[in-house]
Design a protein that fits this description.
Length: 286
């Protein structure tokens, strides 16, 4: 069939992304779908524009925003465009959207990474909402109960999977929050190389919070012998800083393969049961 590259028929056969539609493309069904989908997109766009407006209670809490990625040229005030403005919009909008959370430490780094990836503030907002509202509930709430719970869950998982390291931590009185809190709060941003973090996030959006435990357990298990060389409290803390550097974490492809093999079986049923126990323990401590 001759193609009419300069005709309306040809233009109609190419989708908005530049792909040619097949001869048997069902235009009627697609247009019916898109008319419904357009309503969703419009509703979200309207909500986004409204969220950018409102009172300035959130703005007052964004005092540490200027400290977001000081080593990234795109976030410097001299950059054109400067992503600080985009970051500000995303965080203000999210604070208005989720008043129970507002703004919490660590959210600026999460939002900043999303902006660097999507290059779109509205898309970054919705991805941030998926992370904070659905995948990691209570991580960034004022009490940070979800975050504290999962750090304790990791401790229980290490007892099961790498007992020698758990025994070392207990013997020297090292709380898990001291060595892994930034892993959880920043989702490995500024902890692991950028390419590795992005691969982890792909899995995080697809498989949920279980991935964080897989990454943490892999780091600990792979470096078990090195960690066990520690002889005191400061030494243990230093070892945990060192295990996030080097070739093992830089080779993101092989690293991602390891996180699905090294920790062994890790079901959500097990994690949820541990979460329930650890949460009750934390609440009882007040």
């Amino acid at each position: 069939m001759a193609r009419r590259e300069d005709g309306r028929d040809w233009a109609y056969r190419v989708d908005p992304y530049g792909f040619e539609r097949p001869e048997d493309f069902d235009y009627a069904s697609y247009e019916a779908f898109f008319s419904r989908y357009l309503v969703v997109l419009t509703r979200r766009a309207i909500k986004w524009s409204k969220l950018l407006k409102g009172n300035n209670s959130i703005q007052k809490s964004l005092k540490d925003m200027n400290r977001t990625f000081p080593d990234n040229v795109k976030f410097r005030k001299t950059a054109d465009p400067c992503l600080q403005h985009t970051l500000y919009n995303v965080l203000v909008a999210y604070g208005h959207h989720n008043k129970a959370v507002g703004y919490c430490q660590g959210m600026n780094f999460i939002a900043g990474y999303l902006i660097l990836i999507t290059k779109n503030e509205e898309e970054s907002f919705w991805l941030l909402d998926a992370l904070i509202g659905r995948i990691l509930p209570d991580y960034y709430s004022p009490a940070m109960l979800g975050l504290k719970t999962d750090q304790e869950v990791l401790g229980e998982l290490v007892k099961m999977k790498v007992p020698a390291v758990a025994e070392l931590m207990e013997r020297h009185g090292v709380m898990w929050t001291l060595v892994v809190s930034r892993w959880f709060i920043c989702l490995f941003i500024d902890i692991l190389p950028v390419e590795t973090v992005l691969r982890i996030w792909d899995c995080l959006f697809y498989e949920g919070s279980k991935i964080i435990f897989r990454v943490a357990l892999t780091l600990i298990k792979q470096n078990q012998a090195f960690i066990l060389e520690a002889t005191n409290f400061p030494d243990i803390c230093d070892k945990f800083k060192q295990i996030t550097k080097g070739t093992f974490v830089t080779e993101c492809h092989s690293f991602m393969q390891k996180i699905f093999t090294d920790p062994g079986t890790l079901s959500m049923a097990t994690i949820n049961k541990l979460r329930e126990t650890c949460r009750e323990k934390l609440l009882s401590q007040g």
